[in-house]
Amino acid sequence: MEQHIFPYNFKITQEDRNLLNGHRSLLIWFTGLSGSGKSTVADALEQKLNSEKIRTIILDGDNIRGRLCKGLDFSAEARSENVRRVAETANLLLQSGVVVLASFVSPYKKDREYVEKTIKPNIFVEVYMNTSLEICKKRDQKGLYKMAEKGEIKNLTGVNAPYEAPENADIEITENDSAEEAVAKIYLEIKDQLELK
Ligand SMILES: Nc1ncnc2c1ncn2[C@@H]1O[C@H](COP(=O)(O)OS(=O)(=O)O)[C@@H](OP(=O)(O)O)[C@H]1O
Ligand SMILES: Nc1ncnc2c1ncn2[C@@H]1O[C@H](COP(=O)(O)OP(=O)(O)O)[C@@H](O)[C@H]1O
């Protein structure tokens, strides 16, 4: 289909919006197995940022899959499409000047690289929630691992679907870190990048 599209050059830039907000925008991307602590740490970090008067928004797997990404399953292709839509959404939100916290299993390296490429020149901070499968299985708050054991789920990440761990994550959170420790680690890393006014 031939399209005639002429993007308009709007006058207010992202830099103008950052100035108004008093900080830069960043994308903080949490990746890890189900139960690794992505949502918990994103939640605690958002509270810390909020208390510092930093504008934030959270994009979280389960929430996004109920709306923007409704109908996408957990095949490799659908997961890539899920992450692609989130990357586009994050890109728009970053242009508004907010700090975006995104928590997605995002098991494929190429998908995470796609996110980083999509949001450039904005800053991508990859947080690897390095919680072992053993601990995630023990937590199993949603009962997904038990369902996989019974053969009721065929593509659970870490069990019968792959997880490609980041090799050079900006920040690694281990299963021994409490949520508070994780927040402290992340905040220390991003503080300068926020360029607080
Ligand atoms: N098969 C399978 N594999 C992984 N996760 C599953 C699966 N089925 C359902 N769930 C639930 O979906 C949440 C993960 O969605 P994501 O959008 O983050 O996944 S992905 O990035 O597209 O891989 C995930 O949320 P978290 O537990 O917060 O990670 C689960 O609640
Ligand atoms: N740092 C932590 N230490 C101990 N338990 C945690 C920690 N982070 C999360 N949990 C617990 O693990 C479970 C799964 O956490 P959640 O944040 O939902 O993980 P994810 O979003 O990666 O699926 C929850 O019951 C949560 O309370």
UniProtKB/TrEMBL annotation:
The active site is at residue 106. Its EC number is 2.7.1.25. The keyword Kinase applies. Residues 25-173 form the APS kinase domain. It catalyses: adenosine 5'-phosphosulfate + ATP = 3'-phosphoadenylyl sulfate + ADP + H(+). The keyword Nucleotide-binding applies. It is an enzyme of class 2 (transferase). Transmembrane segments: none annotated. It comes from the Bacteria. Keywords: ATP-binding, Kinase, Nucleotide-binding, Phosphoprotein, Transferase. One of its GO terms (molecular function) is adenylylsulfate kinase activity. ATP binds at residues 32-39. Pathway: Sulfur metabolism; hydrogen sulfide biosynthesis; sulfite from sulfate: step 2/3. Belongs to the APS kinase family. Catalyzes the synthesis of activated sulfate. HAMAP family: Adenylyl_sulf_kinase. This is Adenylyl-sulfate kinase. It comes from Joostella atrarenae. The lineage of its organism: Bacteria, Pseudomonadati, Bacteroidota, Flavobacteriia, Flavobacteriales.
